[in-house]
Structure formats: C-alpha cells, structure tokens
C-alpha cells in the first residue's frame, strides 16, 4: 500500500488545515451562542455534528472549502458516514489530531483511512 503523499501529491499543509479548523470552530461557536448559549460542550457538539454531516456527504467542511481542502479516502473516494464518524470523534478528542505520522496525516486520519488534500 502506498502512503498518502504518494497517492495524493497535494496533501494539505498544516497552515491550511489550521485555517479550516478555525473557520469551522468559529461557525460552531456562532451557532452554539445563538441557539444554545455559551456552553463549550454545546459548541463541541455543534462542531462534531457539523463536521460529521459535511464530511459524510460532501467530503469537506465549510472551513475546508474556504481553505481549498477536501477529505478523501486513500483511494480518492468520499469518506462516507463511518469513516467521517471515526475521524470526527477522534478529532474532537484533540490528542489524535496533534499526533502526526511520517506521511503528514494525523492519527485521526490514519485511524479513519482518510487524508486531507489540497483541491485548489
């Protein structure tokens, strides 16, 4: 099996991924504050639901689209609901997202069999 950098020569850099995360978190915070108050757990729940639904259906969150990124399986297909769920749960635990492999993918992407790629 080839690694993610071989399969996807345009693997996203850390800067774009951080921008995407900040955009998505800001949107989740605004939704949470507007409807649920300033509860950090509500914000995390909104972030998780938004991330899972968008990755399952479109392969990208609003932040990913803004930063020119997409999440794909290693074969290039959309992640689908199960892989998106695994990735989202691990991302929300934070630690897997800050542990990186030699191929530049976070532990959450390795566990889900996904990769964040540049699309523009």
Automatic annotation (TrEMBL):
Location (main, coarse): membrane
Topology relative to the lipid bilayer, per the entry, is: Multi-pass membrane protein
Q: Which UniProt keywords apply?
A: Cell membrane, Membrane, Transmembrane, Transmembrane helix
| GO CC annotations, alphabetized | plasma membrane
Q: What region holds the RDD domain?
A: 44-113
Location(s) in or outside the cell: Cell membrane
Segments traversing the membrane? 18-37, 49-72, 84-102
Matches recorded under Pfam families: RDD
Q: Which InterPro entries match?
A: Pra-immunoreactive, RDD
Asked if the record carries the keyword Kinase, the reply is no
> What protein am I looking at?
RDD family protein
The species is Georgenia thermotolerans
């Amino acid at each position: 099996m080839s690694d993610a950098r071989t399969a996807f020569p345009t693997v996203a850099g850390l800067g774009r991924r951080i921008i995407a995360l900040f955009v998505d978190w800001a949107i989740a915070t605004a939704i949470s504050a507007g409807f649920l108050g300033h509860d950090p757990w509500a914000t995390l729940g909104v972030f998780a639901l938004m991330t899972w639904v968008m990755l399952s259906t479109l392969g990208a969150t609003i932040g990913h689209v803004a930063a020119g990124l997409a999440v794909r399986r290693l074969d290039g297909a959309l992640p689908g609901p199960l892989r998106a769920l695994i990735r989202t749960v691990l991302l929300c635990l934070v630690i897997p997202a800050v542990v990186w492999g030699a191929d530049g993918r976070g532990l959450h992407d390795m566990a889900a069999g996904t990769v964040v790629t540049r699309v523009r």
